Every structure is written in structure tokens, then in C-alpha cells.
Amino acid sequence: MSILAWTYIMVGLTFGLYLTIAWIARVKTTKGFYVAGGGVSPLANGMATAADWMSAASFISMAGLISFMGYTGSIYLLGWTGGYVLLALLLAPYLRKFGKFTVPDFVGDRYYSDVARFVALVCAIFVSFTYVAGQMRGVGIVFSRFLEVDVNTGVLIGMAIVFFYSSLGGMKGITYTQVAQYVVLIVAYLIPAIAISIQITGNPIPQLGFGNTIASGVDTGKYLLETLDGLNRDLGFSEYTRAFGPGSKTMLDVFCITLALMVGTAGLPHVIIRFYTVPNVRGARLSAGFALLFIAILYTTAPAVASFARYNMINTINNTPYSAAPNWVKNWEKTGLIVWVDKNNDGIIQYTKGDAFKDKPKLTGETGSFGQRLVSNEIVSDNANEVYIDNDIMVLANPEIANLPAWVIALVAAGGLAAALSTASGLLLVISSAISHDLYYRMINRQASEQKQLAVGRVMIGAAVIIAGYFGINPPGFVAQVVAFAFGLAASSFFPIIVLGIFSKRTNREGAICGMIAGICFTFFYIVNIKFMGGTPWLMGISAEGIGAVGMVINFVVTLLVSSLTPPPPAEVQELVESIRFPRGAGASVEH
Amino acid sequence: MEKSLAQYWKKNLSLMLILLSIWAVVSYGCGILFVEQLNAIKIGGFPLGFWFAQQGAIYTFVVLIFVYYFRMQKMDKEFDVHE
After folding, report:
1. Is the pLDDT assigned to residue A592 strictly greater than 50?
2. Which of A75, A250, A285, A578 is the best mutation test for B, with the most CBs of B within 10 A?
3. Mutate which of A66, A67, A74 to disrupt the B interface (most B C-beta within 10 Å)?
């Protein structure tokens, strides 16, 4: 059977599964809609959190990024896992005991202020939209590459599916669909990784395999990582395992980016909100552990995949005549993910450091004298590199590079879709609950009936899907840039005031509002200056991705300082803080 | 009662502090600040600092959360604040 037929079968089966689950899990109450009735088991919540968290970027792009960045790629591995320790120890159990529906709920009640609630809800919506646009785009790209439909049609199909199951089942539907999506995506990630690990190193466990010796070929008997260091050095890149040094980020920058990503993860509303869905405080602690365990399975495999892919890629491409290049090169040329420009007209592919040409490839539709696809981009002639490779190819083309059967390739497509859809649905729910619960019910109409709130929630999911889909079809040029915003703002706004709200009774409304505004403004203007106005990273060379760490510190300092100069919070708020510190009674504390 | 709740909170804070120190040491210490020194040590094919940054720290994170879960379970019962 052909790859295309297999892909239709896999995607059709998995989509059918998601829709069936959503239908069984449909809800009629706001509690079911916002927090799945608070009755999700820690194991299921752990899986759902893992699927919610691992987006199209984790599944498709991360291994490719690490492959090119070597050691420096650790910022993503550490940054996107370490935040769960902060969540488990500092946030999740207490927020569960507090027991409302959303992050703005906590901020608004703890700081007895609708201004704080409003700032929090604007941040939650902004962060979530930034994220969700990327997911819809990911859905479109997987559709176009594997199912050979137009990207826009792909986005529309994705929109319809997500709308159906998130509006019908709310958080409950999303949770159980995400459990299924986790299973699909992790199986799809592991099968090719294990196969390639066996091929290159003979070890079936990728996590161990990339520390082994190479089992066949010219480098037999040499350690894989040592070989990669040598290959990188020969081609003019910095050594694969080497930290810092010329061409890489500085130690301070790596430190700040890792910290910003960790703290940002712990402050992301769609992650925090998942811990409201378990029955009690114990469940919140345990499901954070399960969540990170399930995430770690992919995150410890990714760096192994990265090193295998780098080795395979250099070996099969560099100094190979185009006519003898493996089939996957030619297959993926069609998509513009890999492009070869024969600078010296020798018919041989040369891969070294530097850009082959400017910007993203623009295929002309014509082929050159060796049959290669031509581009209309301006060629960069100050280096000898002839190859453009998109990071995403490292995961997407992996099964073909390893000569795996067609059904595995189809499974990877289904896995990519599962990763994108699960994250998109979690984010849409945050947007919907921020507007229908925090804005409409808490701030505009306190008398709204249960049914009316549910209706508003469903309409809001619809509206959010349409806006997200619009950005998926017409991606603004700045999507890549705004991702720095999502983490920077989550780190510099939510994290400090939630932590202080739990651990310091003295922190008051004035402190929290000033702290949030100071943290956000600093981070916002620093990122805008670098990403949009071409400014230099003036603060000790810290890049836009890492500045959230500094914004967080500013938020902490300002919040504490202003709190100490203004009156302490009212007695009932101090009692609230006291009560969330002790687990007993969490099951009963949910009220609206 | 008040006294024992205060004790519970104090014990919780010190457990957190210990676990967060380990968290910082394996990620920021071994994986970033001292990565170059540790890379001089090789475990199989892995330079040790590189291994911490791409593998070891993540395993430690998982263990830390489960340790916190089990210790707190015990403490909740000990101070009679469990659910």
C-alpha cells in the first residue's frame, strides 16, 4: 500500500477516535466545561498535560533545532522540562487547593482587585493566541506534506475538528482526547527513533545509543558524539558537544534563556489550568510527576534523534554527487524543506557552514541540469555551502532516512497532528474561559445562569478557533518572533505574583499590580526593541528569548518593595492564603 | 493545633528548599555553569556536562517531583492535614 493511502488510514482512524471520545465525554455544566468536573485521575491528567504541553514545535521542530545547535539546544530540553519542578513544588498543589477555574481567578481573588484580574486575563489571552496560531499552521503543514491537500484546506479541517471536540466536551472532552493524542504522538516519535538507534549504534534505547559507538560504515567503533564533533569541526561548525565558544551563545545567555523558559512554562495558563482538573491536592502533586515523566520520554529521546539525524545527514549528503543522493532528498526537495544550489557546477553536494542563499527558499518550479529543483533566491557567494535544510526535516524525514515501512511514515504524520491538535485545544479552552468566565461572568454579569455561561463559553471557543485559523492561513511574518513573547510574558507576569501570593501573606494588591506592570513593560519593550526595531541586546548581550528571566526578577523586586511600603492585605485574604497551604478540604472547595 | 500547622509549613518549606537546590545544581550547575569542566570527564561516549544538559538533569527533575509527592504524603498524614 502507498504512503498516501496509509496516511489517510492513520489520520482517519485517529481523528475518528478523538471525535468518538469527545462525544462520550460531552458536558452540561460549567464545572465540567472549565475543569472537567475536577474528577480526572492523576495518571490521565499527567498524560493530558504532556500532550497539552508538547506542541507541533516539540514534536516536529525541536530535534532538528538541537541537531543544528548541538549543546546549545539544551536550552529547550532543560527549559521546557525544568519548569515542571517549579509547578509541582511551588504552584500546582496550592492552586488546586484554592480550587477555582482559571489563573485570572486566582490573581483576582488573591489580590482582591479587578484590575489585577483584568491584567492577568489580557496576558492569558495574548500568550495563548501567540501559541495557538503556530499550532494551526503546524496542522496545515502536516496536512499539505503528508495528505497532499492545500495548506489552507488543512487548516480548515483542523479548525473543524478542534471546534467540534472542544466546544462539545469542554475541558472534559479535551482531557480524554489529549490522553489518546499522547499515546499516538509518543508511539509515532519512538518507533523511528528506536529503529535509527539500532541502525547506527546497535542499541535499541536511543537515550543510551547516542553515547555508544557507531556499529557500521566508515566510522565503525568510534563514539558517535566524538565523530560528530570531528565532522562539525571539519565542516566549519562549532563542535557538537562543545558549550559556548565562538558562534554559540554565551554562558549568561544560555543561563537566562533556560531560566526564562522554565519559569515561563510554570507560568503558562494552559499548563496551570490542567492542575485544577484533578480531585485533590495529592492528585495535583502526583499528576505533575506523571506529566513530567511522560514529557521526559520524548524530551530525552529528542537529543538522541538530533545526533543520529546530524550524523546521517552529513554522511549521506556531504560530498555526494546529486545523482547518487538518497531518495528522501529528492522527495523532500518538492516541499522546499531541502534545497541544493550547485554553486561550483560540479554536480556534487557540498555542505559546510554558512547560508546557501538568502531568506526562505522560493521554488521556481523548474529543474536544473542534474534534475535538482531551482530557487529564485539570491545566492550567497561568500561561502561554499550549497545546501539549505529546514530544521523540521530531521523528524519528518527520519522514517525515510532510516528506510522504515510506509505505515511508520503515516504514523509520524498522525503524531504531528496529535501534537498540534492537543495543544491547540488546550489553548482555545484558556482563551474561552478567560473571556466567558473571568470577563463575562466575574466582571460583567454575576447573575448569568449556568446555561448562559456555557453558551458563552462555546461561542468563545468558536470565535477563538476562527481567529486562530485566520492566523494559521495568513501567518503574520512575526510568528517566530512572538514566541519569545509568550514565554517572556508568562515568566515576567504570572509566575512571580502567583508564587508570592502563596508564599508571602504580606504581598498585597498594590505590590502585585506594580510588579506585573513593571515586569511586563520591561520585557515587552526589550523584546520589541530587538525583534522589531533592530536594536541590540543592550543588557549584557542577553537575547530576547532570555530577557523574561530579568523581567521576572524585576517583578519580584517591585512586588516585594511596593508591598512593604503599602498596607497589608485584608484579614480574609490572609486567611485564604493560610487555607491554601494545607491540603485538607480541597475536594469541597470548588464554588463559583 | 496552630503550632503543629506552623511546623508543617516550616517542614514543607525546608523540603522544598532542599529539592529546589538539587534542581538548580543539576541544571544550572552541572548543565551550564560548570559544563566545560565536567566535559573533561567522559562516561562512555558522553562528555559528562553535555550528558547532564541533555539527559541527566531531566531524569533528576522527574525523580525530584516523585520524591516531593511521597514525602508530602507522609507529612500530610503525620500532621493530620491529609484529605
Report:
1. no
2. A285
3. A74
The reply to whether A138 falls in a domain is yes
Nearest-Cα residue of chain B relative to residue A294: B62
A225, B46: Cβ pair inside 8 Å? yes
> SS3 for A344?
coil
Q: Please give the average per-residue pLDDT across A63-77, as a whole number.
A: 92
pLDDT tops 80 at residue B2 = no
pLDDT at residue number A484: 65
Identify whether residues A23 and A91 lie together within a single domain.
yes
Residue A144 and residue A27 share a domain: yes
Residue of A572, A527, A568 whose CA lies nearest to A548: A527
What total number of domains does chain A contain?
2
User: CA-to-CA distance for A317 and A120, rounded, in angstroms?
Assistant: 50
Across the range A321-328, mean pLDDT stands at: 88
- Is A263 within a domain? yes
Confidence of residue A590 (pLDDT cuts 50, 70, 90): very low
- This prediction's pTM: 0.92
CB contact under 8 A, A289 and B32: no
Residue A31 Cα distances to A107, A359, A442, A592, B66, angstroms: 19, 48, 15, 9, 29
Question: Are residues A348 and A237 part of one domain?
Answer: no
Same domain? For A357 and A414 the reply is no
| A416 and A373, same domain (yes or no) | no
- Nearest C-alpha of chain B: how many angstroms from A96? 13
Instruction: Give the domain extent around A572.
Output: 3-312+404-588
ipTM of the complex model: 0.96
Q: Which CATH number goes with the domain that contains A74? A: 1.20.1730.10
On chain A, the residues whose CB falls within 8 A of the CB of B76 are: 282, 583
Grid cell listed for A450: 449556568
CB contact under 8 A, A289 and B65: yes
Nearest to A47 by CA among A277, A303, A208, A280: A277
